[in-house]
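Hello,

I think I submitted the iron/sulfur cluster job twice by accident. Can you confirm which output corresponds to this input? Input:
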Amino acid sequence: MSFLRITSPHGHSPLSTTQVMQAVLLATLPGIAVLTWFFGPGTLLNIVFGGLLALAFEAMALRLRDRNPKPYLQDYSVLVTSTLLCIALPPYAPWWLIATGILSAVILGKHVFGGLGYNPFNPAMVGYVVLLISFPLQMSTWQAPRGLGEIPGVTESLTALFVPASYDGVTMATPLDILRQNKGLLLDDLFSNTPQFGQWAGVGWEWVNIAFLAGGAWLIYRGIFTWHAPIAMLLTLGLCAAIGFDSGSSESGGSPLFHWLSGATMFGAFFIVTDPVSGATSNRGRFVFGALVGVLLYLIRVAGNYPDALAFAVLILNFAAPFIDQYTRPVTYGHKPTKEEDQ
Amino acid sequence: MNSVFNIHGGIHPEEEKHLSNPGTVLDAGLPPSLVLPLSQHIGKPSSLLVEPGDQVLGGQLLADADGMVSVPLHAPTSGTVVAIEPRPVPHPSALNNLCLELACDGEDRWVASAGCEAWRAETPESLIGRIRTAGIAGMGGAGFPTAVKLMARDRLPLHTLIINGTECEPYITADDTLMQVDAVGIVEGAQILAYILGVEQILLAVEDNKPAALEAMQAAVKATDGSCEVMTFPTKYPSGGEKQLIEILTGQQVPAGGLPADLGIVCQNPGTAVAARDAICLGKPLTDRIVTLTGRALTRPGNYRTRLGTPIEYLLAIAGFDPSDNRRLIHGGPMMGFALESAAVPIVKTTNCILVPTEQELPTPPAAQACIRCGLCAEACPASLLPQQLYWYARAKDQEQLERHHLADCIECGACSWVCPSHIPLVQYYRAAKGMMRESKSEKIRSDRSRDRFEARQERLEQETLAREAQRAARRAAAEQKAAEGGADDPVAAAIARAKAKKDNASDKGADS
Ligand code: SF4
Ligand code: SF4
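Support: Only one job matched these inputs. Its output is below.
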């Protein structure tokens, strides 16, 4: 009788990488649903189209790198990348914009470095920044939310996707843009005079952020990632906003609540900053990483000239992640400096 | 009750302890023959005292300790020595080792033994001697000779004995069972060990998933003088690791590269405590132990009192092995045990569990996926290492970084591999890396030695040269002096020479003072 020789441990936790990726995808659903409610089916269409392209590009890249694509496609990681990128892209973007974004994310963001686990930058954010720099106009065209403009139907969305330059829906500046360009109005007046502002932040955006927060909270509850990076990011963002709030004057940068519920804040905190591959590795490191993203996010939002600052903030911190790791290594058991060594 | 401390990391795998019905001891019976490896402990193998053909009685000495770090071996029953040859033994490397085969005669006749109930009247040294003669080696897993561990008392001031009844590995219930059936024996054994060590405090550590054992231990402690205390703490793997347990109970960490004794602490396993008690009070050598036979491929799992040397094959038959959905035979628990290739190996002093799972229960691991740097491994690591970094460096064979990231402090508990969602066999990489580093270290020692030899030779040559030069200089000086003496009729030269000598003398003195 001969038995199998495998080294210990012989058991395993029930969680696999495929399941981690599936959970992340599942957790984006509330956010996607709210996006679709307020801005129409554009985002959903982007995600489906982008996902198919991403699978194709990934398979192609793996073939070129002489790997069997099947086991790699089954880890769902490329679908996570494409879904996150497509959530960040404006709805009703033309097909070539999405294709360029996905191609950049999968090839430039991931396979150039050797595939999953080796990429120093967040692939979805690489794709986003490539688009932002190359096509600033298309990237800053946001559909007006339900209640402020007509929501396109499915046919119109399909046409917008596949017939270039056909989309002429109602677009509007986002609340973040308006606030940045505000010269002269007190914050309270701005809120009451501008239709784009809702209860706490932008109409629609408030709920989008709350939905992504809910999805993120579920992921933390499931133990898919820890709270350190997202909470740190929200903390520093809130802190910076509190300092820059300026009691709501015309120079005000917006309240903490406004920043928490605006633009890509919650999406970024729970779905981008938590990307393990390109972030810091220890919990302390992740806290530092998230905190710095929060600061940068605020600074670029207030002083920069982009629709939102998340992608830049994250990519800059991706550069810094290895250094953060260096300085936040946990103290190994038995290596605590003793009193004598301190002296 | 003292408060306990929390440790970093740890995991909560399915415990599966109920499978082996802790608290009941079954008898494994007497197999037709026993196979006794001469090395069941850490240290030198025992040296043989018998030959094939010899008749022996139960309890008779078969092999004696060979030097300090070694233990003797006794016959677990009466019979005939039929073979002395290399046989497969339970070891991760699947090596063959010198074994003695004893054909049992079924009569189970024993040598007369004499214990000493009044152990407090003896000196610690003589008690250590009795423990050594009884062939006791740590029964928790490592198998370090107990007598040697007890001699820490000579080197360091000790204050606490910890009896480690944590048994944090899933499935295993051998210590749990022992605590339930012989709590009094454990406490008495602990008192003997504490007396030997000269410590005032005994901590009996039990995880809170063993309520019956906890109760039995508390009852046994009530009857004592108050030096014993039962400590309980939340269940988490690997709380039973010696270093982890010490941190849980005392809040202190064993310094890297050090021993618990550096903190004044000695840890022992409950089985070892009972074996020490039996050795001293009953004069009984270590010839059997409780083994947990468990896993869903057994129809009669349980805790079996098993004679050392019993072939695992025999035990599997006793416990009703059903091979239909089984591929693995594990010596030890699911987290740190090693897989055996064949069941034709014996139970040894360190065997606490034989795990025979079905494929459904512990499936063969799937192929590893890419590391997604999720950090779950770092969260799980009880040593606060960064397993993921160690993995990259182990793959890159980067010894310098491995050392900087404290690979040596990895206790190989397997928590990181257990949580890794990509199913990367992390511990396997660490074992290989440790092996590689040991090798290059011994290579370095070798090359250092030859370098030392080379340098020593260089030095000798240099010194010889210097010595020759000194001789030459001395000869020259002598010749010069002769010349100077010879030229005594030249008053000027003589005066200069005298003045020079005086000055040299003076400056020498100046340097001296
Ligand atoms: S648990 Fe596995 S996948 Fe996650 S960081 Fe550690 S090694 Fe990588
Ligand atoms: S095996 Fe080593 S690295 Fe992995 S969790 Fe245990 S101590 Fe940490």
